[in-house]
Model the fold of this input.
Amino acid sequence: MRRLHKVLIQFIEKVNQEFQLKSKEIISLGLIAQHTSLTALEFSSILGLEEKEAIRTWMGRLVNLKLVKSRGKTKGTTYLVEPGILKKHNFKGQTNLKNIQPYRLDALIIENLNKIEKSAISDIQ
Done:
């Protein structure tokens, strides 16, 4: 956990140097990066927000600066850090397959099966 915090802080510092983010934007970007992605409900719950307009205040310019992507609408909106910005700033935090498109995940599974033919179903899961 300590390593994740160090990596996360370094990532946020690099992004902030480039974009001069406001305090709420830094906190929001850090939360999203730490969790890989957050729904609007999760984001509101973590920060104790009650009004939906409050999310916009906390997100600030993150979407417009293309630091964060949003998918969906209203309570179902999901926020994730733009993959290009993670790559550009060499983010080495933990990642998962939660946000990968289903067709890409299928291709990765097939590629893995071609490399390791005797994979157990538990390995694929």
